[in-house]
Amino acid sequence: MYRSDVVDATGAGPGSVVLIQEQARAGSQRREDKSVPSASLAPRRATRPGAPRLLGSAFYSTASEIAIRMISPKPVADIEGLVRERIRAAIAYRERFVQNTNAYRVIFSEGDFLPGLIVDRYNDILSVQVLTQAMDAAPIRRAFLSGLNEALNPAAVFERVDPRVRKLEQLQDKESGLIGSATGVSPVESAKSPLTTTEFQINGVRFVYDAQAGQKTGAFLDQRENYAAAAQYARGEALDVFCYQGGFALHLARTCDKVTGVDSSRSALEAAEQNAGLNGREIEWIEANAFDLLRDYSDAGRKFDTIVLDPPAFAKSRQSRETALRGYKELNLRALKMLRPGGILVSCSCSYHVSGADLLEVLASAAQDSHRIVRNLENRGQAKDHPSMLGIPETAYLKCIISVVS
Q1: Which CATH code is given to the segment(s) 79-197?
Q2: Coil, strand or helix: which one is 5?
Q3: Where are the alpha helices (DSSP H) in 27-159?
Q4: What does the buried/exposed string (b/e) look like for 284-297 if buried means 16 or more CB atoms within 10 Å of the residue's CB?
Q5: Separation CA 256–CA 372 (nearest Å)
Q6: Do residues 366 and 329 touch, judged by C-beta distance below 8 A?
Q7: Residue 110 pLDDT > 90, yes or no?
Q8: What is the C-alpha separation between 342 and 312, in angstroms, rounded?
Q9: What is the pLDDT of residue 346?
């Protein structure tokens, strides 16, 4: 719930647990949300006619525009116990639905009823991101760390800090670093610790993980199932655009004669080359601006049998949506012009503000302008360890369209 929905937050401190009541303003039929401090929690009495209706418990932020993040439909007397229970439930979900990998998202914020907490597992290392005042509070940090350690017994737990998020939440500045390990090593001692590096596998493809490098929590685990799906259709000469550390490229190398990966980040390409060596693959890596390279390749008449487009989120807000759509249109138009008849296009978007319907419309428009016939083979989303929740559309953000082009 947004701050504009809150009628009264008297006594609610940073990161506190609050009760949410539905309240009608005097002289109006419109209902609003009213937050009440958790200190007022008490057994509910019979509701009087016209009394505010209890909606549940939530975390409250004094800084974010998203002031209320629901955690339960009823009062919560033991928030630390609830956090540990949710940790166990999230791990049980992964044990049931995640296969053929030792790298996956363990906790997906609202998708696992733990808003503000992201945890990824890379073999024996856990990578943690804390995104809200409530999750940064000492009692809750102790609760989720102890729950993760009890259930998964990791060799190390590394916290990846997003300075922008901490500033928005008005949290104290801090550096990324080791916050737990089987050996009890301190963050100071871990500056160059082997505890921050490991090797993991996705669909049988091997990757190196360095907790102190890369974007967000390290790798893009939400594409894991899409990597495998793309490889089923890929053939011939392949181009992986915005390849990052080689996730798609290394999977395509199993079925393609030649693979080229393109990214603007030298460090990402160095990691990709290391990953290629682990798997005994020869892949060409090109450091370049993807838009410029595709324009040059298209103008020069370069052709490929498979092209993957996996750009970063172009639309960070609703206001940037139209600009993002133009960017997606240009990428897909160039790719369609470069595909040989019968070629495979894998087009992705991780922008929540660009819907699946938007991406399909972009692809249809690019197909019309390029005079190509596009038949969709699969419309896909994020991997199962990134569960999307009905009623919380923000949890469904990744789109992946696999098409065959005539």
Answers
A1: 3.30.750.80
A2: helix
A3: 79-97, 133-136, 138-152
A4: ebeeeebeebbeeb
A5: 23
A6: yes
A7: yes
A8: 27
A9: 98
- Distance, in Å, from the CA atom of 146 to the CA atom of 285, rounded to the nearest integer, reads 41
Average per-residue pLDDT for the chain: 88
400 catalytic per annotation = no
Provide the pairing of β-strand 31-37 with 17-24: antiparallel
Q: Please state which of the ranges 3-7, 30-34, 172-176, 279-283 shows the lowest mean pLDDT.
A: 30-34
Cβ atoms of residues 3 and 9 within 8 Å: no
Distance CA 11, CA 188 (A): 38
- In the predicted model, is pLDDT for residue 338 greater than 70? yes
Q: Which residues have a Cβ under 8 Å from the Cβ of 392 and sit 6 or more positions away? A: 110, 111
Contact 202, 121 (CB under 8 A): no
| C-alpha pair distances (Å), 394 with each of 145, 319, 339 | 26, 16, 33
Question: Average pLDDT of 83-104?
Answer: 96
> Using alpha carbons only, how large is the chain's radius of gyration in Å?
23
Instruction: Point out the catalytic residue in the list 243, 256, 350, 400.
Output: 350
In this predicted structure, the answer to whether residue 182 has a pLDDT above a threshold of 70 is no
CA distance 301 to 312: 26
Other CB atoms within 10 A of residue 355 CB: 16
Is the domain defined by 220-405 classed in CATH 3.30.1490.20? no
- As a whole number of angstroms, the distance between CA 51 and CA 31 comes to 12
Beta-carbon count within 10 A of 375 CB: 9
pLDDT tens sequence across 344-369: 999 999 998 899 999 999 999 999 99
Helical spans, DSSP H, in 62-188? 79-97, 133-136, 138-152, 163-168
Query: What per-residue confidence (pLDDT) applies to 27?
Result: 46
Burial class (CB in 10 A: 0-12, 13-18, 19+), 195: buried
Cβ–Cβ < 8 Å for 100, 110: no
Count of residues making up the chain: 406
Q: Where are the domains of the chain?
A: 3-72, 79-197, 220-405
Compute the average pLDDT of residues 147-159. Answer: 94
H helices present in 56-137, as ranges: 79-97, 133-136
